[in-house]
Amino acid sequence: MNISQIEHIGIAVDNLEESIKYYEEVLGLKCYAIEEVVDQKVKTAFFLVGNTKIELLESTSLDGPIGKFIAKKGPGIHHIAFAVDNATEALKLAEQRGAILVDKESRKGAEGLNIGFLHPKSTHGVLTELCSKQK
Ligand code: CMX
After folding, report:
1. pLDDT at 32 over 90
2. Are residues 88 and 64 in contact, defined by beta-carbon separation less than 8 angstroms?
3. Which of 18, 38, 47, 102 is deepest in the core (most CB within 10 A)?
């Protein structure tokens, strides 16, 4: 699997604009990109902290994964994403090692990365993303 670093931490927010203000004005970070991921029904905002990113996620629909998460648990930490060499291979290996896959194959996520999720029921409650630049 070869995890090299925490690629990003995903944080579900009610309002992207208001949350960006907190990260910029209180923490002094700089939002370097805002991107909508249509098939995930989210708008994202990115900040770099060392080599790791913070990804803010605002739902564009109540029935998307972030909309459902906020309705149930409120805003807060949503997932942790690990950088791997090859997300598709890492997903297969995680499944062989007992994790339940949300995504059988990697797919395109924000910033053009190949991403796939492990179900939180099989990861001790933490929604886990594996992502890679190449497949
Ligand atoms: N962390 C921990 N647990 C979570 C969770 C999260 N982020 N999201 C959902 N759950 C839990 C729920 O609380 C629920 O638990 P209970 O059964 O004990 O009540 C269970 O998982 C099922 O939740 P649900 O609301 O019924 O939602 P679904 O089963 O429809 O979906 C999940 C859950 C994880 C499969 C779905 O949210 C998903 O596919 N997530 C991955 C995609 C995603 O999050 N995309 C946004 C990020 C975009 C990006 O980074 O590019």
Report:
1. yes
2. no
3. 47
Q: Report which ligand 1 atom has the smallest distance to the Cα of 78.
A: 7
35-90 tens-digit pLDDT:
999 989 999 999 999 999 999 999 999 999 999 999 999 999 999 999 999 999 99
Identify whether the C-beta of residue 82 lies closer than 8 Å to the C-beta of residue 10: no
CA of 29 to the centre of ligand 1 (A): 28
| CA-nearest residue, atom 42 of ligand 1 | 65
Instruction: Report which of 43, 49, 52 is spatially closest to residue 19, judged by C-alpha positions.
Output: 43
Domain ranges of the chain: 5-132
Distance (Å) from CA 120 to ligand 1 centroid: 7
The pLDDT of residue 135: 64
Out of 3.30.930.10, 3.40.228.10, 3.10.180.10, 3.40.50.300, the CATH code matching 5-132 is 3.10.180.10
Nearest CA to ligand 1 atom 16: 121
Sign of the CA dihedral running 26, 27, 29, 35? negative
The protein residue with its alpha carbon nearest to ligand 1, atom 30, reads: 65
